[in-house]
């Protein structure tokens, strides 16, 4: 909970003008859950250091402030008073807010120049992610150094502490350094002391506008800054993509809706649907059923293909079906279309005679929504009762989630997923299921490939053995 900023060069005491904090007068600021102190441990022409020290009241966090009903943000025993966290970002904005805007009345030229600056953050929570310190700060022009610690010398088995002392140095404008720290400290510290809502998207984009769109780790930074809240991340990505569109780049994001925009690179959803349709056209299917069709993105593509003479869409959700109907414009469609397309409500985990009689069935990004205890029922409904000659099934590849800023094994891509499979787990399940019900299986990967973690989506095409 100590941040120091050191300026080396000539007349470095001017740092005081840029920060609007007099080097010779320590100051205290009241924060919501404690105090912030600003003082200068060293002041000279060649080298001046400003320090921002946080004194967070742990009881406040656990109990709420005296006289208020809010509280219970953290457990009684918490690390908040000792680490640089989202509290540090709040303090930076409060104490150095003017410097962050770049306004420096008496030293504007200096404020607009890149200076030799060094910042040290003590202590930054960063469990098992130290290489990210390099990949996040280096593209911004910093040299990165960090010191690690062992948790307790008396208990070497406890291993390395999750905290580091991070030092970044570079030739940057002061306002940029402050914005980088403001955004990136909470990227490494995962516990935010505020509710992460839409206004955090605004803050991220405002403080990141000059550097985030071009950052190679923008997906990771955005995901972590927004506490992996998918809807907010999508919102931010859309805006970042718009910022990048001028250079012809677009972020490939797992999203629930997937219309292509102009000639931009297709997003993952579009790539996935394209792969499914290609797999289907190859197998010569005529009568097809989309189980868990959602809002009908795939159905919309299928109706355009004359090869498919009967197209059914099933979902457990009435609302999704109603939206699918609207998208397909069924009410206004010609009779020939209405005869080809049928939507009905049903569940993949209950035997249903209406699922039978199709050449091919798809289950696209649905299986992971099922309770794992219902998986065996699903297998029988699909492969034993419906029994189409071909089943195309896609599901997320959990290993790829690190690219969305999700690092723990428990972090799933969407809040309503009950589980997600690694490539080995999916392969294992699919091979066993294929063998059990007399199908052959072929696997493919969909979406941008990462050497280590594979692609975001995995697809299995099951073909019945004759
Ligand atoms: N296949 C679509 C939608 C995927 S979202 C697409 O790729 O765009 C998952 C869908 O599965 C949701 O619409 C949800 O309502 C549906 N679903 C979840 N459990 C289901 C079940 N037991 N039976 C049928 N559909 C189910």
Description:
The structure is a single chain. The protein is an alpha/beta fold and 466 residues long. Helices cover 33% and strands 23% of the residues. The chain contains 16 helices and 14 strands. It has helices at 15-19, 58-63, 86-95, 97-101, 108-111, 130-137, 174-188, 198-208, 218-225, 230-245, 268-282, 297-302, 318-327, 335-340, 375-386, 423-437, and strands spanning 2-8, 27-31, 34-43, 47-56, 115-125, 143-150, 160-172, 287-291, 310-315, 341-345, 360-364, 390-396, 439-446, 457-464. The strands form two sheets. A seven-stranded antiparallel sheet has the order 2-3-4-1-5-7-6. Strands 10-9-8-11-12-14-13 form a seven-stranded mixed sheet, with helices on both faces. Strand 11 (360-364), helix 15 and strand 12 form a beta-alpha-beta unit. Helix 8 runs parallel beside helix 10 (230-245). The termini are far apart. Residues 65-76 and 245-265 have low confidence and may be disordered. Residues 291-294, 297, 315-317, 320, 347-349, 364-366, 369-370 line the site of S-adenosyl-L-homocysteine.
SSE map:
Blueprint lengths: L1 E7 L6 H5 L7 E5 L2 E10 L3 E10 L1 H6 L22 H10 L1 H5 L6 H4 L3 E11 L4 H8 L5 E8 L9 E13 L1 H15 L9 H11 L9 H8 L4 H16 L22 H15 L4 E5 L5 H6 L7 E6 L2 H10 L7 H6 E5 L14 E5 L10 H12 L3 E7 L26 H15 L1 E8 L10 E8 L2
Parallel strand pairs: 8-9, 8-11, 9-10, 11-12
Antiparallel strand pairs: 1-4, 1-5, 2-3, 3-4, 5-7, 6-7, 12-14, 13-14
Helix pairs in contact: 3-7, 7-9, 8-10
This protein binds S-adenosyl-L-homocysteine.
The site of S-adenosyl-L-homocysteine has 17 residues, from loops.
